[in-house]
Amino acid sequence: MVCGGFTCSKNALCSLNVVYMLVGLLLIGVAAWGKGFGLVSSIHIIGGVIAVGVFLLLIAIVGLVGAIHHHQVMLFFYMVILFIVFLFQFGVSCSCLAMNRGQQETLLKSAWGILRNDTKKDLESQLNCCGLLNVTDSRTEFDLDLQNCPALCKKHSSCFTCGDMMLHHATEALKILGGVGLFFSFTEILGVWLAVRYRNQKDPRANPSAFL
Q: 72-98 vs 162-199: helix axis angle to the nearest 10?
């Protein structure tokens, strides 16, 4: 069977979904490991990562079962959902690559404002810093964070702000995140193309008179 035929399309789609399943299990495992070792105590962060992993795992299972059984309905919903995920991930990846420092500061401030106190303390302990940014428009919040800061640097000398430390690596991190997201978004459009192609192919082992 030459590549591009029924068997090749089936094997390629199955392999792609096995990779998605492994990535989903990896996300769930990393989130559980982080919670178990106390690296992150926020249930919202843990729940968000696990939700993404479970969603990816379920989509991969639907695609894998649909590919194995050449199930038309499952393949249809698989390619529709995967295409929606592709559009969302492609947009987010492009936004990460295009974000400048001013936008990064605005994003950090909005994210810091909705974090729980225990999550802030986790970040301050791990990064050995205190507060977000020592600027005029958020001085009150910064002073409060400084008082509750558990970082070791507070006991020995003055601390860097967490915002400065995060922004120092933010540009590089966003480029990596955007690049990886962009790469995986194209694997998703590859999955959509394989599903459409495979769905319209006729199983050579099926009844020749069967309706596809």
A: 150
- Outline where 37-116 has alpha helix (H): 43-69, 72-98, 101-114
What is the Cα–Cα distance from 83 to 55, expressed in whole angstroms? 14
DSSP 101-168: HHHHHHHHHHHHHHS-HHHHHHHHHHHT--SS---GGGHHHHHHHHHH---THHHHS----HHHHHHH
Say if residues 105 and 175 touch (Cβ distance below 8 Å). no
Question: Model confidence over 110-146: pLDDT tens digits?
Answer: 877 787 888 888 878 887 888 777 665 667 777 777 7
The candidate with the shortest Cα–Cα distance to 82, out of 59, 58, 61, is: 59
Distance CA(193)–CA(71), nearest Å, equals 16
